[in-house]
Amino acid sequence: MLQFGKILSFPKKKGKEGEVCRVVWYYKPEDLKSGRKSFHGKKELLASDHEDPVPEGSIIGHAKVHTLLEYEALKTVGKYDFFSRFTYHMATGAFVPDQVPVLCVCRLPYNPDSRMVSCDTCGEWYHIACLDDNAAS
Q1: What are the residues facing 26 on neighbouring strands?
Q2: What is the distance between the alpha carbons of residues 71 and 93, in angstroms, rounded to a whole number?
């Protein structure tokens, strides 16, 4: 299982066996008690305040964790591009921000994987799937 972390510090001396890095972890929504919600994007990671020492030799690759705005501006989303818009506090289980704007007739927060359109009249944003569902009923 891949785990994602942001390296805070590298060992000061190179080559010494057992040297450790300080890492703060990112979590996939499904790894937390609250689970994955419909508004979580497929490539969404949750920043956390959970830090650990990690052996330098256990770090096997790198990924880029963008802000949501940076992620949306990417011309091409690569295999190792992810985004984060929430921070998870381990001790309390709280998220920051704890509320996000809701949109559409479904009243769900924005999911970057769901296409949306803006109404020219009212300025509200709607999921195309929700408009299709409403038109069908």
Answers
A1: 4, 47
A2: 26
